[in-house]
Structures are given as structure tokens and as C-alpha cells.
Amino acid sequence: MDKPSLLILDDEKEVLNALNRVLRKHFQLYLFSDANEAIGFYRDNPNIPLILTDMRMPVMDGATFLGKIIEINGQCKRFLLTGHADINLTVTAVNEGKISHYFSKPWDNEELIAELKNAYELFINERKTKQLLKVNLAKNAELSLINSSLELETNKTQQKLQLISTREANSFGRLKKTFSTFIDIYAETICLHTQDVTRHNFRVAAHARLIAEKQGCNKLTIFQIYIAGLLYETGKLALEQCLLNKSVETMSQQEKNLYGVFYQKSYELLNKVDELSFVAEIIKNIPASYNGNTAPEHLAAEEIPLGSRIIAIVSMYDNLVNGRQTQLKTPTVEAKHRIKELAKTMFDPSLVNQYLTVLAEQPSSKEGKVDYLLNSSDLREGMTLTRDIVNTDKNPMLTKGTEVEQHHIDKLIKIEKDQGEFFLIYAC
Questions:
Q1: Where do the H-state alpha helices sit in 195-260?
Q2: What CATH topology corresponds to 122-152+159-374?
Q3: Coil, helix or strand at residue 398
Q4: Superkingdom of the source (predicted)?
Q5: Interatomic CA distance for residues 103 and 149, integer angstroms
Q6: According to the CATH classification, is domain 375-428 in 3.90.105?
């Protein structure tokens, strides 16, 4: 694999030589002692993702230099080397968004390498996200075809989706595939941006669909609730990944305020597509408390859309068990207890009971198998692992695709008991 490119500017040759020795094994280096020369080079090579510069230099300080770099490519990751005397200028540069991180002299070699590597991974992920979003915008244009092919016919005794003509019937399969492709791309984009390898939104959508089926909803409503589960985190595309990497309960109040707007942002983004307006309304009301205490609308009980009430429960449970809500992953037994405690205040009590039954019975959906988050005691013979089970050293104990047998369960429970910890298991 090619090494990431890194441009370094420092007016001291000794510093450049030292950085060259430390970083040349890990990065493709471009070293400069003259700021104007470095800027000219970068204009010709604007795709270099990493920039490292000294703060105090003649002619042009590091913050000014990075400001000119931003004009060429604002997506690159920018770093400062700074001495104690320059700390006030460095803080200003941080606040103005000119730098991603700064290193105090003398720097720590391991920290320097690690931060630069992490920044490069972040740069790659952001670039992939933007590429997928471009595809999403192209797919948006195709969604308008669905309105011309489908109409809803309302009957006093029942509501169902009907195709109006033979021509529309023949084209519905193609249109449904187009719509599903758009939705899948959008959902994958969310996973990529939030760096969620567990496919949280896909699991939330599948569980929400299960509950909607058990509620006896019609096919259209079930479909809308499923799509809302897939896309409810769309607004997180507007949040920085450093914020998304934190569990909610470890955030400062300011961070929680920034984080909490993602539901509204999801609504604003999706409501622009006519075919997703009802889905957007579901997502907008997910934070609404069942007891009506949530401003500004203070919706309560049945006033809150059914899909919103379902996804609120399912997403909270998954976030607890997966460690996205709290600093540590929550055991499934404790997560179920916490959800039950919040019935009547935050959650619809009848839906809580129904979801707890789903978690106990672990059924499949009419649309296919459903992924469950489990501890060892929740496993059943015949289940199939959808991810590796790893030990504390990150070594796999059982691999993805393994069909669970009783001796596997017994061994895992024993290890949990002996080590005083629990495994997070993904299975269907």
C-alpha cells in the first residue's frame, strides 16, 4: 500500500532532518524550509492530505501558512509544531479551525506518528462519504418516478397499496429496486461516516419492522417505519466524527447540544424528497417523550407517530448494549431493565413490553432474518454468528458464520463467569 503523503514546513534544517528520520518509514514526505516555495508546490499538488508546519518562522508564521493552504484544499488535515511561547497563537489557530491538532516541542515520536495516521484514516473516510453522497444526489432525481407509478386507494374498511394499471404493475419492480438502491446507499453512507462497523441502523430498522408487523400495520406503514430506522441518523452526516466517536453519557453539555440536533437535521434533509416526507416526520419525533414533556410541540402518547415510538425504544436498547449510549457496553439484562424503567415517561409501555417479548423470542421477520445483539446466556442452538466473537486480546474465539451449538454456549458462559465480563455477540 502506498504511504500517505505529508508536507512538512520548518525553517530549521535540523528539525526537518529529525522529522524525516521519524516519519519517513510511515509517510511519503515533502520537506520545505521556505513557506512560499511550499505553497507553490502545494498548488501543483493539492491532493496531499497531511500538512505539518512549525508555528514560529520568519516571513510567515504557521497559522498564516495553513490559512493559505486551506484556500487551496480545505479538506486536508493540518498540524502545528509549537513552543510554549506560541501557545496563545496556537489556541487561536485551533479555534479558527485552521488546525486539526498541535504538537508541543519537543514532540513525542509515537504520538506524532499515531495522530498523523489517525488523521489520514479520517481524511479517507470523509472522502468516501462525500463520494457516496454524490451518488445519493444522483439517486434523488430518480425518486420522483415513484409518484408517477403508484397511487394510494383508500377504502373505509382497509388501506392498501394498489397499482393502477398493467403498465405500472410491470414497472413497479424496477422502480422499487431503484428506491431500495437509493435507501441502501444512504444507509451505508451513514455507517461509513459514523464509523459504525456493527451496522446499528440496519439492525434498528429490522427490529422496528418486526414490531410494526406485530402491531398489524399495513405494508406501506411497515415499509415507512423500516426506512425511518435505516435513515434516522442521516443528520449525523453534518456532525464531526470526533463527536460521534464519544458515547452520549461522556459528552459535555455543549457536545450534547450539538449532538442532539441530528434528528431535526435528518428531518430537514429527508423532507426535501416528497416520497420520504412521512419517513422524515417519523424521525423528527423520535426524541419525543411519551409523557409529553419534550419541547417544543409536547406531543404525548398516541399523538407521537407509531414509528417514532417504536424506533425510540429499539435505538436506545441497541445503543446501550453496543456502548454508544454509555462509556461501557451494557449487559442485555441490564439494558432491558433500563428500557422497562423508562416506560410511561420516555417510552410507550405497551411497545416496550412487545419489544421485550421480541428480544426474548428472537423471531425472524417476514422479510428475512434479523440480527440480534446478545450476551452468552441469550444464545440459542442453531443461531448463526453474524460477526466474530473475540476475547479481550481481540483474538477470534468463534468466527462469523458459525452455527451455534450447546457446547459453544456452555464454554462462553464459563469464560464470562471466570473472567467477570461478558461477550457482545451478534447473531441471527
A1: 200-214, 219-231, 241-244, 253-260
A2: Hypothetical protein af1432 (1.10.3210)
A3: strand
A4: Bacteria
A5: 59
A6: yes
Total count of residues recorded for the chain: 428
Q: Are 90 and 82 in contact (CB under 8 A)?
A: yes
Three-state SS for 198? coil
Which grid cell is 343?
Answer: 416506560
Amino acid identity for residue 322 in this structure: N
Query: b/e map of 183-205 (b: 16 or more CB within 10 Å)?
Result: bebbbbbbbbbbebebbbbbbbb
Tens digits of residue pLDDT in 191-238: 677 677 778 888 988 898 999 988 888 888 888 899 898 899 888 887
Q: What is the pLDDT of residues 364-416, one digit of tens each?
A: 877 777 888 888 888 889 888 988 888 777 777 888 889 989 998 888 888 88
The continuous run of DSSP H or E covering 425 comes out as strand 425-427
Fold (topology level) of 5-107: Rossmann fold (3.40.50)
Q: How is the chain split into domains, by residue range?
A: 5-107, 122-152+159-374, 375-428
Residue at 22: amino acid letter: V
Rounded CA-CA distance 164/151 in Å is: 7
Query: pLDDT per residue over 93-116, tens digit each?
Result: 665 657 878 898 889 999 999 999
Rounded CA-CA distance 57/11 in Å is: 6
CA pair distance 33, 13, nearest whole angstrom = 7
Beta-strand relationship, 372-374 and 425-427: antiparallel
Check: CB of residue 56 under 8 Å from CB of residue 83.
Answer: yes
Q: Which three cell numbers stand for residue 277?
A: 416526507
